[in-house]
Design goal:
heterodimer, A: alpha+beta, Mago nashi protein, seven-stranded mixed sheet, globular, disordered N terminus, B: about 180 residues, alpha/beta, OB fold (Dihydrolipoamide Acetyltransferase, E2P), five-stranded mixed β-barrel
């Protein structure tokens, strides 16, 4: 009976939006400074799952929490960083210009450790005057920053200011060739909301992915993300199941139906657009967003994930190819014997650090080396990980791994050999060295 | 962390103050009745409102647990629709109490020598974890050591919100004997 009453109450509230809104807006309670401080401790040093929940509660408290956090944030980026990512992420929700004044220098400092959180904080309620400043971050090396910037610009462009609404669409179209599939999907959804539903064909492509980065099922993850995005738009998936391979009979049939639905939606939406913008979204999905062929014989891997310098997914194959990215990765032929030489350096790195697989402290920056186990060429690949938090960690990487890292970076071809139109390969060697330097320390120059 | 009390906020916090809706009581009662009528069929047909209840009911009936191992994708769990305080999807609830096989990665920062750890779909969750994005693994006959690669575990799955101090600390859990 109790649960019936509870549900009845929920249904009743849902039936009367004015009641819900007023309930949310009514200040619920007063918090003592000690209670606020306890929540701050949870948001800074609770478990990874508690931190964002505690920060969320502080955001709901409002001014008393804002005042306390402002005092803690200090005046330097170092002090701001000590708040940690969960608290930084909610600062933008307090609608206090003093927080924006603190967040912007952090956004503009490439070495600030929590830039993804900063960007989401700023994007929560962006100011019209920030349009130009934000636009520059659409080319940021960090995908979550590009994503938050896209969201912020979308929000600003939909506030009824026609003068800005026009330039947003080309900016979103440019993100359809972003190197990161999450950013591409968001751009597609935002464009659909502006009548460019053809962009949803990018998501249809993701539904067909089966790619992996070694044992990481990047294709399956993309299928879930695309399916969720389409369902959020109330698009019937025609029975598509993301957990099943796209090649199953039911998924093949579903993909066929879905393609028809999406094309019909595209035609209907484009018919309402002015002639000048009707063809803004390309008629064909570009290579970077298409389903890729299999990667055979990957023997070595370097995965750099950095909240300071971006993400790099690199693989070296038996037949001396460098595979860059995932999904439909870029493939570059290397001089014969390159992979063999790198594998020798990988053996040395393992022998110099027997049994050791992890260095550093958990944080937002990581180097992951994958390599065959010494003496067990057919066993599952060994993975060695370095991780760094907000604190400086000079000499984090052991010497033998630095030698391997230097050799990996040196094997990346020069820019004149690589495709300058592909964002994954542009200035790749330089960017990989920069990421190495930022995470585990510099590797030897070429 | 401080001692936790399940039904209140941070220890010592008072319950929320009454909310004023600026509406007459008769209108609210009418809405409650309408809501009740709308909600009743769903509630009555939902046999698994209480997550974990299926297992308990089966045990009370004296049914032996099945030894069949169900292979589950951690990505599917991560993407299952979850909203705080609401029932998990039926297919997740049906796994409650079952023996499952699950792959994933130890969260970076897993300390050595503990009896539990978080299993995540990708090793770097970058210090931020949504409650439905990991499986809390308990080791019955082992302690943790950090394994950097993908691991597959077989154990007994349970689901449903675990709340401490007003924070949801887990939704998915796996009890297994030892690490691979």
């Amino acid at each position: 009976m109790n649960r019936l009453v509870r549900l009845a109450a929920v249904a009743a509230l849902a039936l009367c939006p004015s009641v819900s809104v007023q309930a949310q807006e009514t200040p619920a309670r007063q918090y003592t400074p000690e209670q606020i401080d306890r929540l701050i401790v949870h948001a800074q040093s609770g478990s990874a799952v508690i931190r964002p929940q505690a920060a969320e509660r502080l955001a709901r408290i409002g001014k008393p929490a804002a005042d306390r956090l402002l005092a803690m944030a200090g005046t330097s980026l170092g002090e701001l960083a000590l708040l940690g990512p969960s608290l930084i992420e909610v600062l933008g929700r307090f609608d206090d210009p003093r927080f924006r004044a603190l967040l912007w220098p952090a956004m503009e400092d490439a070495e600030f450790p929590w830039r993804p959180a900063v960007s989401r904080s700023l994007a929560h309620r962006p100011l019209p005057a920030e349009w130009g400043r934000l636009q520059g971050f659409l080319e940021d090396p960090i995908a979550p920053v590009r994503l938050a910037t896209l969201d912020a610009l979308a929000l600003l462009s939909s506030d009824g200011d026609a003068a800005r609404a026009v330039p947003f669409e080309p900016l979103a179209v440019a993100r359809l060739t972003d190197e990161n599939d999450v950013v591409r999907r968001r751009a597609a959804v935002l464009l659909d909301g502006r009548g460019h539903s053809r962009a949803l064909l990018w998501l249809l492509e993701d539904l067909q992915r089966t790619d992996t980065y070694f044992d990481l099922p990047t294709g399956e993850a993309a299928r879930y993300a695309a399916a969720n995005a389409l369902q959020a738009l109330d698009i019937d998936l025609a029975g598509f199941e993301a957990y099943l391979p796209p090649t199953t009979e039911t998924n093949q049939a579903a993909l066929g139906s879905l393609k028809e639905r999406l094309l019909a939606r595209a035609r209907a939406s484009e018919a309402k657009l002015p002639d000048a913008t009707r063809a803004l979204v390309p008629r064909t999905v570009p290579a970077i967003a298409r389903v890729g062929g299999p990667v055979e014989g990957a023997r070595l891997g370097l995965l750099l994930k950095s909240c300071r310098r971006g993400d790099y997914y690199l693989r070296w194959t038996d037949d001396d190819q460098l595979i860059i990215g995932y999904g439909n990765p870029a493939r570059v032929k290397l001089p014969e014997g390159t992979t063999r030489r790198l594998m020798a350096a990988a053996d040395t790195a393992q022998e110099a650090n027997p049994g050791k697989v992890y260095w550093g402290r958990p944080g937002c920056d990581m180097e992951s080396f994958r390599m065959p186990r010494v003496g067990q060429p057919d066993a599952r690949l060994q993975q060695l990980i370095l991780s760094k938090d907000e604190r400086p960690a000079p000499d984090l990487r052991p010497a033998a791994l630095s030698t391997l890292g230097a050799a990996m970076a040196a094997s990346i071809p020069t820019d004149d050999v690589l495709d300058a139109s592909d964002p994954r390969t542009r200035e790749l060697a330089q960017r990989v060295r920069g990421a190495f330097a930022s995470i585990g320390g510099p590797v030897a120059p070429r | 962390m401080e001692a936790l009390s399940p039904s209140r906020g941070v220890r010592g916090e008072e319950p929320p103050a009454e909310t004023s809706y600026h509406l007459g009581m008769p209108f609210l009662v009418l809405l409650l009745l309408i809501g009740g009528v709308i909600a009743a069929p769903g509630v009555l047909l939902d046999r698994s409102w209480k997550v974990g209840g299926q297992v308990q009911a089966a045990m009370e009936r004296g049914e032996a647990p099945s030894n069949e191992v169900v292979e589950v994708s951690i990505l599917r769990l991560k993407n299952a629709r979850y909203r705080k305080g609401r029932p998990l999807p039926e297919w997740v609830q049906e796994l409650d109490g079952k023996k499952i096989s699950l792959w994933g990665y130890m969260a970076i920062g897993t300390l050595e020598g503990l009896g539990e750890f978080e299993l995540v779909p990708e090793s770097c969750e970058c210090g931020k974890s949504k409650v439905n994005h990991f499986v809390q693994v308990t080791l019955d006959d082992d302690v943790t050591r950090f394994i950097p690669g993908r691991i597959t575990l077989v154990g007994t799955f349970s689901c449903g919100e675990v709340e401490e101090d007003g924070f949801i600390t887990s939704v998915y859990r796996l009890s297994t004997d030892q690490l691979p």
